[in-house]
């Protein structure tokens, strides 16, 4: 009977008609986040993680979670790892977890939804907790674009590639950015202004120490100068934020894809190629309170939406309203939006299409400034 009462309260709290007050209500079976950490984000091929393997980043993340979470690893009901480019990711994740000292009774699964793989890992374990399958779930996202650059995959069967929409799935991401810019009239100047603001906000946030609580220093192996020998080093800060970036400086950068669209996408107004990792621990509110753990946030819902591959970056235009509808709130109820800056073109169009106040979006900068490990 107690479980029935909890479910009733939970469903009432997440009713689409409940509004903001319902979301803010506290119920024992709320899914809550008790730990949210990330590594520094480092420039691929050049930054602090350039010599670190994907499984080594996983290993370090598992160790940090065990040390900081306040939860014994054996209590974790399932682990979901989001990663995109790693070969044999399932073996890597399982092996890294065991090497970090987790018992073999803790299972691991791998998920790949391209750039939202890390978010889907969170969604997966949150839904497992919500349904009662597990009490505690760990979501990890990890990507080494230094060690596993995106070289594309094998060619499609002609039975598939004969379909125009299916064939578009193999095109480069820069092509999709140019398509969005041209189709929705996002100018080069607008993109450069937006990108400069992203760098400037990230610079200010880093200088003010805003990221200190969310970043866990990572110990990784790095090659010594003029040698293949790798030695341990500790990386503590994001290294891709370009201080002093201006729209005038960005305007001087040549187009990255002059063969497509209006040639508005550049290395300055698109996200950097980056290495990084992150972790989120979820459980019920009741479990967190019994363990005396801090509750950082309450998980509400996730929404996904499909769009034509040729303009794939506009997905948030459809997913955001769906998430708001699922949560039973309006856009005006939201104080802050985090929208992935894969390209300035698609992020700007999302803001315009949904009429989101610019000052509410990515207040501490976004992926253009930090970089974009594909899983995060």
UniProtKB/TrEMBL annotation:
Stretches assigned to the Thiolase N-terminal domain: 31-285
Pfam families: Thiolase_C, Thiolase_N
Single GO MF annotation: acetyl-CoA C-acyltransferase activity
InterPro entries: Thiolase, Thiolase-like, Thiolase-like_sf_Thiolase, Thiolase_acyl_enz_int_AS, Thiolase_C, Thiolase_N
Residue span(s) of domain Thiolase C-terminal: 294-374
GO cellular component terms, A-Z: peroxisome
Catalytic reaction list: an acyl-CoA + acetyl-CoA = a 3-oxoacyl-CoA + CoA
Gene3D superfamilies to which the protein is assigned, alphabetical: 3.40.47.10
UniProt keyword Transferase present: yes
Pathway where it operates: Lipid metabolism; fatty acid metabolism
Domain of life: Eukaryota
Coiled coil: none
Example of a GO biological process term: phenylacetate catabolic process
Keyword field: Acyltransferase, Transferase
Family to which the UniProt record says this protein belongs: Belongs to the thiolase-like superfamily. Thiolase family.
PANTHER family: 3-KETOACYL-COA THIOLASE, PEROXISOMAL, ACETYL-COA C-ACETYLTRANSFERASE
Protein name: Thiolase N-terminal domain-containing protein
Protein source organism: Panaeolus cyanescens
Lineage: Eukaryota, Fungi, Dikarya, Basidiomycota, Agaricomycotina
